[in-house]
Design brief:
The protein is mainly beta. The protein has one domain (2-162). Helix content is 8%, strand content 48%. It contains one helix and twelve strands. The chain has one helix at residues 96-108; strands spanning 2-4, 18-21, 30-36, 40-47, 50-55, 58-63, 75-78, 83-90, 114-118, 126-132, 139-148, 153-162. The chain has a seven-stranded mixed sheet with strand order 1-9-10-11-12-8-7, covered by helices on one side. The chain has a five-stranded antiparallel sheet with strand order 2-6-5-4-3, with no helix packed on it. Strand 5 and strand 6 form a beta hairpin. The two termini are 26 Å apart.
Length: 163
């Protein structure tokens, strides 16, 4: 699902992002509720400051959070919680960001398990979330993309939660 957002984004570069687990649901610009095979329910939430995914009791927030120093780990693994997170920051050369974002919008626009928010002012300013609805190993997984055309950065995250 592709949505045009009617609010400027708050985070402006990859270095502004933090990962938090738990905590409250933040005010959202758009929410997509998903009912997945096996009775799993997720909420994909686009924030002005990036994204939240709510999966049962888990609330994952990747965003610019006021009062919190930015810190987006490359990897985080909590074996007890069955939670694995990875993040990568890309700085494509030339028109690479524009090409990647256009492909992302095209790939996910009609995906029933995705949400792509386009912020006003630049078609390449997007936050996208995509859930793998039927992972083979009894886990739940999602990926996100945060594009910052003003700094030529694309932040990719991937989360796997063991059910």
């Amino acid at each position: 699902m592709l949505v045009a957002l009617d609010a400027p984004y708050v985070d402006t570069r990859a270095a502004d992002l933090s990962l938090t687990l738990g905590g409250p649901e933040r005010p959202a610009l758009h929410v997509r509720e998903l009912a997945l095979p096996g009775g799993i329910r997720l909420r994909l939430r686009l924030l002005g400051a990036s994204h939240q995914v709510v999966c049962g009791e888990l609330v994952e927030t990747v965003a610019c959070l006021p009062g919190r120093p930015p810190h987006l780990p490359e990897t985080l693994y909590d074996e007890d919680a069955g939670y694995r997170f990875t993040a990568t920051v890309l700085r494509p050369e030339g028109d690479g960001l524009r090409t990647r974002v256009a492909a992302l919008r095209a790939d996910l626009a009609d995906d029933p398990y995705a949400l792509v928010g386009v912020f006003p002012g630049d078609v390449d300013a997007v936050t996208a979330l995509s859930v793998r609805p039927d992972p083979p190993d009894g886990s739940m997984a999602w990926r996100t993309w945060h594009a910052y055309p003003q700094t030529n950065e694309l932040v990719l995250t991937e989360t796997v939660v063991e059910l």
